[in-house]
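Predicting holo structure, 2'-deoxycytidine-5'-monophosphate bound.
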Amino acid sequence: MEEFVVTVDGPAGSGKSTIAKIVAKKYDLTYLDTGAMYRMIALYSLENRVNLEDERSVVEMLENTKLDIIGNQFFLNGKDVSAEIRTPEVSAVVSPVAAIKAVRVKLVELQREISKGKRIILDGRDIGTVVFPKAQVKIFLVASPEERARRRLNEYKEKGIEEDYESVLNSIKERDHIDSTRKESPLKKAEDAIEIDSSKMSIDEVVEAISNCIDRKVG
Ligand code: DC
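Done. Tokens:
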């Protein structure tokens, strides 16, 4: 089977994972949430109080973390951490963890390995620029920080996590800043990516826009 790669990059809360899951189902693609992989490393660093400033500790951490993804379940060293990786505590530390070069090298390699020979859609920050610069379809999904904060707040509410709008908005803005100004693979639109602003679009409308891009490639 020929590899077919769709990349969806964009800032936190732009709707990447919701949209990518629907598109995956529609086109029978495997879906890989690469943010969840960074979140698993961030969770490990929290639980084990890893000193992220110390290179040796980071290398040791990477040697000691085995990530397995089965469907939409995420296993860190054999333990299902699908819920833990979505907490505000993990969100607060994941950006600095994702800015570490050694972390990115390990996860990019794993992302390519998982994708090998597959028809797949991946979402993240650097998928169209670094992980799969030759992907057949590249989407850059954006939305205003305020709209993204509202969406995140709703997600938390559904999970019974109490947070207030201002702190979610601040956390999103802070993560945007770290993600787009970091030295290693900053969040940016690939030159050949199609930009979609989902602020005022329904989920169906975004799915349709992406479907049109895919149909143009495969049709
Ligand atoms: O999409 P998310 O909020 O689950 O991503 C969590 C963090 O991981 C976010 O701060 C950016 C980082 N990330 C990254 O640097 N590269 C990716 N391909 C995916 C996520």
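The first helix runs from residue 16 to 27.
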